[in-house]
Amino acid sequence: MQIVMNIHSKILLGLVSVLALSSCDDGDIKTSSAVTLKDGYVVKVTGALANASSWSELGKSYTLVVAGFAEGDSFPTISKIIPPESESIDITLSGMENSVSTVELCAINSIYKRVVSYDTIFSFQDNPDWDPRDTIFYEADGRDVGVYCGIYNKLIAGKGKCFRCHGEGSAAADMHLVGKERSYAELVGVDAKTVSGSKRVVAGDADNSVLYRVATEAKTDGALPWHYDHVSNVDGLDYNNQKLLRDWINAGAKMN
Ligand code: HEC
Fold this sequence. Notes:
The protein contains seven helices and nine strands, in the order βαββββββββαααααα. The protein is of the alpha+beta class. The protein has two domains: 2-143, no CATH class; 148-250. The strands form two sheets. Strands 1-4-3-6-7 form a five-stranded antiparallel sheet. The radius of gyration is 22 Å and the shape is elongated. It binds heme C (HEC). Heme C binds next to helix 2, helix 3 and helix 5.
């Protein structure tokens, strides 16, 4: 099992080891003892995950991890890789920096930025009275951590997102995106309404997929074949999500 830490935690580790060394000498470095760890807290994640290997099909850009984040941060302070092919996992996270506020089951990209979070395993904020001596257990219970599930949860589902216009009430372009299976069935390999001769998603070809075009082309780039400028008006169509869509489509646009 491989341990991944960002620069922040490496600095922290460095400080900790300097402190350990300096405890035997009289160097003035002791003033750094303000660095503390959520020492004693142990988070143990076990059980089966579904579709974990779909991330490795996207190449080396993404990694599934159990990770601790400081509040409002999208770069983990500490993380451990979930081995993609393993049927069940057994991961322990400990020695967290005090700033960690949540431990999450998520996918990070090549610069260690969180791209999708599947679940909050533990929130220190929400459990201020938790006794650090009690291990935090999390049973994965077959949770779907596949790429499409991530795209669906993060980008498509929920109030104010695609559901607003492609949901139960109205279905712009006759496209219903409610439900993982249904949205997939209405996107992949289906003829687009707005661009004749094109498909919404062509597996393996993001540039010719209307979904990807709708998610990346704004009116300012030139006349659009569809009327509604999604890029300028729909939440979540930022660079990381656009890249995730692209990578997913180019890797074959699989559901699982
Ligand atoms: C405020 C309303 C609105 C929201 C929110 C919205 N869309 Fe749309 N979408 C439309 C309209 C209207 C059309 C079709 C008509 C047009 O623009 O020509 C459309 C068309 C599309 C098409 C083209 C479908 C085809 O068959 O040609 C795709 C793909 C699409 N939307 C994806 C999305 C995704 C993905 C989201 C969420 C990230 C989203 N839309 C959010 C209004 C919306």
